[in-house]
Amino acid sequence: MGKITNIKKQTDNRFLNIYELDNIHKSGRKGKYFVASRAKDIDSLKITTGKNNPDGVIIYALSGEDKDKVVLIRQYRYPINDYIYEFPAGLVEEGEDYSEAAGREIYEETGMRFTPISVPDGYNRPFFTTIGMTDESCATVFGYCDGEPSHEHQEDSEEIEIILADKDEVRRILKEEKIAIMTAYMLMHFIKDEEPFGFLKED
């Protein structure tokens, strides 16, 4: 297996930084690899700690009287200079439980109140997002939303539309719109499962 011989921090930004890794390939050839990370310093990198603490949280929430609508946001994102459909999401603050982060983030982005549900072990632990480029990991929290959507608590830097989508609208979104990949996978569950969150039940 490859080996990392040195790590150098290349940038000093608030939310995201680039780290340069000197490495040796399995053949013995030396090389370099570049990793984007939310870690503030080398000692906090997952490479260094060996721990997978979640950087962020993603919220898969259902709403409506019959819990037959999924809560989505349509958000402007600079990397594509366009709007994309996503689940509400955000960063986990230091010392914050990711279930607490889920409630805070969904309220800030949608104005709705969130009630998480219990899921089997392994369903909401942190998983890596785009491992070829970043060590970022996110936990998914599942639950239900109540209340009327509102833009009141969004930050000035956020351009977010709140979407409560039924199955017909989700089918259209999957066919026609830009969607984050994890959101797309979960929306496929949403349109196929007769029972909301049925896929979360253990056999």
UniProtKB/TrEMBL annotation:
Cofactor(s) listed in the protein's UniProt record: Mg(2+)
Listed PROSITE patterns: NUDIX, NUDIX_BOX
GO molecular function: hydrolase activity
Protein name, as recorded: NUDIX hydrolase
Family the entry assigns: Belongs to the Nudix hydrolase family.
Native organism: Catonella massiliensis
Domain Nudix hydrolase intervals: 52-187
Top-level lineage group: Bacteria
CDD domains, sorted: NUDIX_ADPRase_Nudt5_UGPPase_Nudt14
Keyword annotations: Hydrolase
InterPro entries, per the entry: Nudix_hydrolase (IPR020476), NUDIX_hydrolase-like_dom_sf (IPR015797), NUDIX_hydrolase_CS (IPR020084), NUDIX_hydrolase_dom (IPR000086)
